[in-house]
Design goal:
Strand content: under 5%
Number of strands: 0
Structural class: mainly alpha
Helix content: over 70%
Length: 180
């Protein structure tokens, strides 16, 4: 199980980090407006390898059967490895690109405020978003908090959902049975 988790976890992490390095310059200059959509799509595609990993483990190391708990753990471990690489990728990107998290956060908040203003939001709604943004900007100054925030609030929930679905589907040995 360790080998499967490590290999697929590294694949997940490398895919999301590579995509981050490719797309981040476009996000920073504003040409990639819906970057969050691209980011989460990339995560889903990369994390879909959890399904492949569980199936591979079920078919090759577990005689064609796997319990839900074991399958879920495989997915969770892959998610955690990928999440550590993803959050590390953020930190590395900031270091090599000279990106200032404070400037990034301020720019993001200004964009959100502009969207609200364009949509006709009230002054109270806009002020609430600004206050929330200030809170997160202060929080993101701490590298450990930023690492855990990026990993556990952005990446891990997606991996948990995919792990649950994959474990539920693949626990049934008649679903995509191995070609023996």
């Amino acid at each position: 199980m360790k080998k499967t988790v490590l290999i697929y976890g590294l694949i997940v992490g490398l895919v999301v980090v590579a995509m981050m390095f490719i797309t981040m310059p476009f996000v920073m200059d504003g040409t990639l407006e819906h970057s969050y959509l691209l980011g989460y799509t990339t995560m889903v595609i990369a994390l879909s390898t959890i399904f492949i990993a569980i199936k591979n483990y079920r078919d090759k190391q577990s005689n064609g059967t796997i319990k839900f708990g074991k399958a879920f753990l495989i997915g969770l471990y892959i998610t955690l490895i990928g999440g550590v690489l993803y959050a590390s990728g953020w930190e590395i990107y900031m270091a090599v690109s000279g990106m200032n998290m404070q400037e990034f956060s301020e720019g993001y908040m200004q964009g959100e405020v502009a969207k609200l203003e364009k949509a006709g939001a009230s002054a109270a709604e806009i002020e609430a978003v600004k206050e929330e943004g200030k809170y997160y900007m202060e929080m993101m100054k701490n590298p450990l908090v930023r690492f855990l925030f990026v990993m556990f609030l952005e990446f891990v929930p997606v991996g948990i959902i995919i792990s649950l679905i994959s474990a539920a589907v693949l626990r049934k040995k008649n679903v995509l049975p191995a070609n023996v």
